[in-house]
């Protein structure tokens, strides 16, 4: 007959997680129905919170520096996260970092829908919509076509093209979440976020000078800035640096690009699932739930059921989630991994940036 000394570690932990165990009762005694579930949630929380707390702390520090030095918060979060790469290699933080880079990311992307209404988009008219759709399609097509010819994966081409065409780091995170997982997936995502953030910062400085030099009016300048600058905050900031009207137009055009996140990511997820089904007969496509949440929030906000304070709060939570996810991704990647990829990814994303700028500028001039 076995004694208490023969009980394995998991059984000991289970015994001491219940009051019955503390009373010395046998592990075979059935506890109250709610206790096993509560114990599992508690165990999950204890696994997640160290890595999540690390990611959230890095996000908080990055936000503080961004506000005080007027620099991209995503870039700060990435760089800070990469300095803590050793914590992802082993130890208590690994599970929480993985949770932050995936689950928290999806929540942040879904909540982006609270910032958008259909009315904002329809007020722009046909020309900006056509220019934005063409620019996004062109950037993704260029990436998918050119990446294999530069020795890069087609997935990276789609990831970089979508990031440049839609909304920078946020789009990169959303698209990466539905692309096939490979050994280079995390590195490619981090490289895309770093490069698109740098290119967006350069565009925020250079493009207002460019539109002034070629003589665009306030409305046309807003369409160009909103349709070409990658990051939402930088597009809005560049627009308002010219005039309030330019800032308003740039904001709406940029939100139009954010709206395109839903169909683009859904289309990529569909194609990925269809490719996977070729090797697995009978497999059903998985519908990304965060895209469903994104679409639902857009609809609810468009019909006026989402109060302004709630919409603003959701936007702020979305920003925090995305910065936290970026910090977590940073801890999963080393500087050595990024330095090893060379100039080709940067050159590809620069070409995608130039292409979308040319498409939007031609549309503005023709209109």
Automatic annotation (TrEMBL):
<feature type="transmembrane region" description="Helical">
    <location>
        <begin position="71"/>
        <end position="87"/>
    </location>
</feature>
<comment type="similarity">
    <text>Belongs to the UPF0324 family.</text>
</comment>
<keyword id="KW-0812">Transmembrane</keyword>
<dbReference type="InterPro" id="IPR018383">
    <property type="entry name" value="UPF0324_pro"/>
</dbReference>
<feature type="transmembrane region" description="Helical">
    <location>
        <begin position="44"/>
        <end position="65"/>
    </location>
</feature>
<keyword id="KW-0472">Membrane</keyword>
<dbReference type="GO" id="GO:0005886">
    <property type="term" value="C:plasma membrane"/>
</dbReference>
<keyword id="KW-1003">Cell membrane</keyword>
<keyword id="KW-1133">Transmembrane helix</keyword>
<feature type="transmembrane region" description="Helical">
    <location>
        <begin position="255"/>
        <end position="273"/>
    </location>
</feature>
<feature type="transmembrane region" description="Helical">
    <location>
        <begin position="158"/>
        <end position="179"/>
    </location>
</feature>
<protein>
    <submittedName>
        <fullName>Conserved hypothetical integral membrane protein</fullName>
    </submittedName>
</protein>
<feature type="transmembrane region" description="Helical">
    <location>
        <begin position="347"/>
        <end position="364"/>
    </location>
</feature>
<feature type="transmembrane region" description="Helical">
    <location>
        <begin position="124"/>
        <end position="146"/>
    </location>
</feature>
<feature type="transmembrane region" description="Helical">
    <location>
        <begin position="285"/>
        <end position="305"/>
    </location>
</feature>
<feature type="transmembrane region" description="Helical">
    <location>
        <begin position="191"/>
        <end position="216"/>
    </location>
</feature>
<dbReference type="Pfam" id="PF03601">
    <property type="entry name" value="Cons_hypoth698"/>
</dbReference>
């Amino acid at each position: 007959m076995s004694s208490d000394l023969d009980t394995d570690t998991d059984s000991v932990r289970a015994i001491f997680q219940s009051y019955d165990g503390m009373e010395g009762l046998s592990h075979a005694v059935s506890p109250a129905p709610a206790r096993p579930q509560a114990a599992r949630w508690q165990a999950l929380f204890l696994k997640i919170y160290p890595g999540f707390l690390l990611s959230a702390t890095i996000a908080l520090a990055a936000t503080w520096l961004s506000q005080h030095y007027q620099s991209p918060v995503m870039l700060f979060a990435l760089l800070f996260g990469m300095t803590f790469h050793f914590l992802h290699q082993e130890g208590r933080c690994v599970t929480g970092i993985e949770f932050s880079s995936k689950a928290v990311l999806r929540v942040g992307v879904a909540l982006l829908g609270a910032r958008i209404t259909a009315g904002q988009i329809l007020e722009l008219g046909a020309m900006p919509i056509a220019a934005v759709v063409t620019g996004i399609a062109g950037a993704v097509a260029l990436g998918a076509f050119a990446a294999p010819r530069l020795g890069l994966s087609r997935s990276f081409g789609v990831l970089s093209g979508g990031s440049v065409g839609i909304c920078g780091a946020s789009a990169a995170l959303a698209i990466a979440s539905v692309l096939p997982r490979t050994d280079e997936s995390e590195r490619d995502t981090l490289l895309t976020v770093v490069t698109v953030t740098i290119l967006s910062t350069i565009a925020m400085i250079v493009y207002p000078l460019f539109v002034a030099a070629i003589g665009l009016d306030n409305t046309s300048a807003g369409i160009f800035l909103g349709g070409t600058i990658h990051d939402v905050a930088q597009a809005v900031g560049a627009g308002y640096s010219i005039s309030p009207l330019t800032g308003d137009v740039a904001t709406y055009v940029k939100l139009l690009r954010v709206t395109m996140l839903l169909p683009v990511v859904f289309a990529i997820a569909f194609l990925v699932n269809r490719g996977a089904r070729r090797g697995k007969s009978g497999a059903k496509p998985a519908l990304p739930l965060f895209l469903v949440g994104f679409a639902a929030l857009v609809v609810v906000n468009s019909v006026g059921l989402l109060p302004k304070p709630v919409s603003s709060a959701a936007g702020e939570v979305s920003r925090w989630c995305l910065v936290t996810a970026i910090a977590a991704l940073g801890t999963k990647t080393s500087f050595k991994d990024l330095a090893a990829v060379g100039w080709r990814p940067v050159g590809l994303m620069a070409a995608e940036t130039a292409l979308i700028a040319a498409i939007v500028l031609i549309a503005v001039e023709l209109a």
